[in-house]
Design goal:
Layout lengths: L4 E3 L2 E3 L7 E6 L4 E7 L3 H20 L2 H17 L1 H12 L3 H18 L7 E5 L3 E9 L2 E5 L7 H12 L3 E5 L6 H10 L8 E3 L7 H5 L6 E5 L2 H12 L4 E5 L4 E5 L5 H13 L9 E7 L3 H13 L19 H17 L1 E7 L8 E7 L6 H4 L6 E7 L5 H5 L7 E5 L3 H8 L6 E4 L11 E2 L5 E2 L1 E2 L1 H6 L2 E9 L1
Parallel strand pairs: 7-8, 7-10, 8-9, 10-11, 12-13, 12-17, 13-16, 15-16, 17-18
Antiparallel strand pairs: 1-2, 3-4, 5-6, 6-22, 11-20, 14-15, 19-21
Length: about 475
């Protein structure tokens, strides 16, 4: 299979060995498709096309822009099965999760299609009419990671387009296929240049973030890359939204139903093989329930069916790529040194990047597996005894994306939750997100906000129209 890029309404890229990138199935380590190896000239063409398309798109009535975003949702829904198979083949996640990503994407788009970047009138009297308008920025660059290769681009495309901007998407190098296919499906109803996509070998991001005609960069990915993007956007004073890494704590009080809480925490930790920015990445379990919580989590992990996401019954797919697999291996090694592994580990003698879910106990703050974002199927459980101090302890990190507090006493849990320095804090649940709920990070987890009306505003700038009468 060979899938081209979409630039200025044309499918671009030649199928020749020197000009293509292999798309590897992480369950087999075999290349099963090719995409073009984009060059700087493709970035320049895509930005030029987006810039050219911008005035007409910005002038298109809001209802028409919303209708096009709604049509995107229809097309994704109509092709969900086929697209989900492609997604599983390149990303690894089990088919039900891939279908879930399609349904999520559809739902987000349908919500964005109802939004409007609203201005307001400050004064309208005999002397002046003063209006605050929300006008589009121009060309947006959307730089995306490999964990949700379809959902994350549409977190950018939907609001950018509704607000009147045009966009250039750069997928992650290991997961370009499904989004390219979707752009091809959109090409007969989205005006040329409004959406463009360029694939790369992890080398073209700077060409977008430096580009003088890109007005805004919306980035989702690691903290390290986020810092580079902010630095390189500075010379042209681009607007940036950075949705970065997380190391979400789940704080469990001693009064919980341990089995029920463990099941929910397990779900929040091992979705997409743990490769979720908002996954539970550290469990703080009170000493009175510590052994029971570790045991319940290990029981659930032992029941996991790890394998090819295309096979029916698989509950955890492979780690997405070789580099991440190497990182997860190092975490398993350090966890073995610092604590006690209750179950799971690297699957040997199998071609894919498979890891049986790991539960590690007797680890503490300061250990790599607790302090760093593991981004894989491995979960540390830390014992604590002082409920008064646990919020402060969990805050002792540069991350601040999400967190959860679990207790049968909601008021008590909410009091601790209020002390947590994170953009999304949940009580008795983890990862409840949606297009109507703002999503942001504290500290190194990000700058700006995505989703909801607040997220939409980030794709606009304020213009004051001040008319003397
Ligand atoms: P990454 O930072 O390695 O790569 C993300 C994207 O940035 C890729 O498209 C990559 O090619 C591009 N890139 C790399 N160097 C660049 C540069 N110098 N300039 C511009 N672009 C560059 O991240 P990843 O490994 O693909 O994704 C995993 C990370 O993403 C995790 O830390 C995870 O927590 C985070 N993430 C965050 C959210 C969120 O909403 N906060 C959502 C999903 C993933």
């Amino acid at each position: 299979m060979f899938q081209q890029m979409l630039i200025n309404g044309k499918l671009v890229g030649k199928r020749s060995p020197k000009k293509t990138i292999n798309v590897v199935n992480p369950s087999t380590q075999k290349a099963f498709a090719q995409v073009p190896k984009g060059k700087i000239k493709h970035i320049n063409k895509a930005v030029k096309a987006a810039n050219k398309a911008f005035p007409a798109w910005a002038a298109t009535p809001l209802e028409k822009r919303q209708a096009i975003v709604e049509k995107m949702a229809d097309v994704i829904s109509d092709n969900a099965d086929k697209l989900a198979r492609l997604l599983t083949s390149e990303q690894g996640k089990p088919m039900p999760e891939a279908m879930g990503e399609m349904a999520w994407t559809e739902g987000y788009l349908r919500h964005y299609a109802t939004l409007e970047a609203r201005g307001r009138t400050i004064q309208d009297d005999d002397d002046f009419k003063i209006e605050v308008r929300r006008v589009p920025l121009g060309v947006v660059a959307g730089i995306c990671p490999w964990n949700f290769p379809v959902l994350v681009p549409f977190w950018k495309i939907g609001p950018a387009l509704v607000a009147g901007n045009t966009i250039v998407i750069k997928p992650a190098p290991t997961t370009p296929l499904t989004i390219l296919k979707i752009f091809e499906l959109f090409n007969n109803f989205v005006p040329a240049g409004v959406i463009n996509v360029v694939t790369d070998e992890n080398d073209l991001g700077p060409a977008l973030t430096n580009h003088p005609d890109v007005a805004k960069v919306s980035f989702t990915g690691s903290c390290e890359t986020g810092k580079k993007i902010m630095a390189s956007s500075a010379s042209t004073l681009k607007r940036v939204t950075l949705e970065l890494g997380g190391n979400d704590p789940a704080i469990v009080l001693p009064d919980v139903d341990v089995a029920a809480t463990a099941a929910q925490i397990y779900g929040g930790a091992f979705l997409n093989a743990g490769q979720v920015c908002l996954a539970v990445k550290r469990v703080y379990a009170h000493k009175d329930i510590y052994d029971e919580m570790c045991g319940e989590l290990a029981t659930l992990a032992n029941e996991a069916i790890v394998g090819d996401g295309l096979q029916q019954g698989t509950t955890i797919g492979p780690v997405q790529n070789k580099a991440q697999f190497k990182k997860v291996k190092a975490f398993v090694k350090s966890a073995r040194k610092d604590g006690k592994i209750l179950c799971g580990g690297i699957v040997k003698n199998k071609a894919g990047y498979f890891v049986n879910p790991v539960i590690v106990r007797d680890v503490k703050d300061g250990d790599d597996i607790v302090d760093k974002e593991q981004f894989g199927p491995i979960l540390p459980v830390i014992k604590y005894s002082n409920i008064e101090k646990i919020g402060k302890q969990a805050n002792d990190t540069d991350f601040g994306l999400g967190a959860s507090v679990w207790s049968s006493d909601t008021a008590k849990a909410t009091k601790i939750a209020s002390q947590i320095e994170a953009g999304s804090v949940w009580v008795n649940q983890h990862i409840n997100i949606g297009p109507h709920i703002p999503m942001a990070g504290f500290k190194s987890s990000g700058i700006g906000v995505e989703q909801s009306e607040e997220g939409l505003e980030e794709y606009t700038q304020i213009q004051v129209m001040n008319i003397a009468k």
